[in-house]
Amino acid sequence: MEDDQANVSHGKEKQASVELPLHWSEWQLLDSILPTGGFAHSFGLEAAIQARLISSPDDLRTYVIHILENTGSLLLPFVCTATTSPDLETWHKLDRMLDATLTNEVSRKASTAQGSALLRVAASVFTEVPSLKKMREISLNFGDVAFHHAPLFGIICGLLGLHRGTSQRAYMFITLRDIISAATRLNLVGPLGAAVLQHQIAFVAEAMLKKWKDRAVEEACQTSPLLDTVQGCHAYLFSRLFCS
Amino acid sequence: MLHTDREREREMESKIEAATGKLVVKKVGGKSTVTRCFSKYPLKFIIPNKVGSSETDAVWVYTLTYGGGIVSGDSISCEITVADACTAVLTTQASTKVYKSLGSKSSEQILEKQIFRVVLDSSLVIVDWITSGRHESGEKWDFELYRSTNHIFLEGDQPLFLDSVLLEQGSITNIAERMQDYQVIAMVILLGG
């Protein structure tokens, strides 16, 4: 009896010793301090303000929710598939598909810029996963890989050993994090108000995740064509703080 | 999950069999000509001779649905092949109207999918647009679901342009809110030289 209990607790300890360090990697990946250049992008928020689509905190809340829904419908399938099959062939196929799917040039460029930066950082940081560095080098040599963000985020999560449920939730989280951050820098909301808003929207984000997770990339679609159009106008803004 | 070649072949065959319309445009006597035209209810093709300038070599094909609109339960699929050096225009007589069947259990759901397979030197113009409804009746983005997909593939199934727009009334966000005060949304794609 005592032996059994000892075995069970030893088994649990073993499991924990594998899982607990993973939390540190996960948190580091989600921390905004990771130098992936996400702070340079506003997810169309800057263009939406100048297009007079946002003039009150309520408008901002609505905007964030619409962007999260679009992230869910368009990008989560890519994160999901990449996490489940984090191999070179799958990554390149997803990268090509997303390149054809992001028809808005502004968001396409933002995706490749963030994706490239993320892979470069991940290859340097998570050295216990040598395939990250290898995949990066091979793909740079190919020349026609776009390095889109969503598939790469999924690949990195998958190679680190994170489950696809975690990686998809994480992707929604970093999107929410970055838009809220952009909103404070655009003076739409103060830092404390931003933190309150982020927590309130988290419940909506979880509902969005439940609706859009675990889908095939063939089902990827956009649900906010108006916002997509507005984001595409970012390049025409006379004065702007953000890249997108 | 990759389909085997045989599975894909079988899939394509069953799709052609189920097609409501099939059209082939080839060069006959130096002019773009419809060499095969098949349609079954509720679809109909009208191919008038004298549309457009006589100096332009182009076949104009109008698609009609009996009754002038689409009602729930309608399912239409067309397959159109345009041969080398030919030009075809595929359009509708007027805007396609969607009617809600009275007492119908199914909500108004419109699913549209257009797949274009082109070669390197093809030219293609696509215009896809939707309005919010009949304003006089107070309709403003008042339908349950609208999904329009336009995919363009190069040779070897290489994806060139994959666009799928879904407008669905949701519990958290509704369509009117997402479209704000805009009543029309249109997409124009220009490909080629």
Automatic annotation (TrEMBL), chain A:
Pfam families: UreF. PANTHER family: UREASE ACCESSORY PROTEIN F. Gene3D superfamilies: Urease accessory protein UreF. The keyword Chaperone applies. Belongs to the UreF family. It comes from Citrus clementina (Clementine). Keywords: Chaperone, Nickel insertion. InterPro entries: UreF (IPR002639), UreF_sf (IPR038277). One of its GO terms (molecular function) is nickel cation binding. This is Urease accessory protein UreF.
UniProtKB/TrEMBL annotation, chain B:
GO terms for molecular function: nickel cation binding. Coiled coil: none annotated. Keywords: Chaperone. The keyword Chaperone applies. InterPro entries: UreD (IPR002669). Belongs to the UreD family. This is Urease accessory protein D. It comes from Citrus clementina.
